[in-house]
Design brief:
It is a single chain. This protein starts with a helix and ends with a strand. A three-stranded antiparallel sheet has the order 1-5-4. A three-stranded antiparallel sheet has the order 6-8-7. It has a two-stranded antiparallel ribbon with strand order 2-3. A hairpin with a 2-residue loop joins strand 7 and strand 8. It has two domains: 99 residues, "Winged helix" DNA-binding domain. Chain C. Domain 1 (Arc Repressor Mutant, subunit A); 72 residues, Winged helix-like DNA-binding domain superfamily/Winged helix DNA-binding domain (Arc Repressor Mutant, subunit A, Orthogonal Bundle), CATH 1.10.10.10. The chain has seven helices and eight strands, in the order ααβαββαββαβααββ. Helix content is 42%, strand content 16%. By secondary structure, it is an alpha+beta fold.
Amino acid sequence: MSTQDKFEMPWQYSFPPFFTLQPNLDTRKLQLDAWCALVLSYFRTHRLCVIDVNESQSSPLFSNTTLNRKLSPETISVILDELRKTGNLEWIDKNKRRAWVLWKSVDEWAKVLYRWAVDNGMLSTVCTFYELIHGQDTTEEEFHGMDQDLLLKALRCLEHQKRAEIISMDGNMGVKFF
């Protein structure tokens, strides 16, 4: 059973008004909280970390084919802005078309990566970014499949803490954990 098979949408997802931004401010607050929780849970379960605004409206996350309802681009923008306000979203580009959905903060990702390095005897060893993101030794890790730029941000945190050094070798990126 894949991770995607394990994911269940919350009850609100089957409620048609959930797909229309509510005018009552109290109701809207509850609705946005539910959407933010859903986005974070969906991204965590599917091990996703990048959202493309142009493609998001057709995503199963924001489009319920059973109800024939989907969120408007404006409502998706409101949800993404809420995630940004809570520190769970960081824009990748200036045009706000792509963003990282941070179901873990960059600091938390740094801790996860370092814990993996310690637990797997990888201190004083160079690992390529490819090995970390796509390697067989990391298939069960939360960071497996992570966006390379987000990985780089997390490793820079470790570099600032003197727990790692980022290395560039023949056009490939790697990291040595201390």
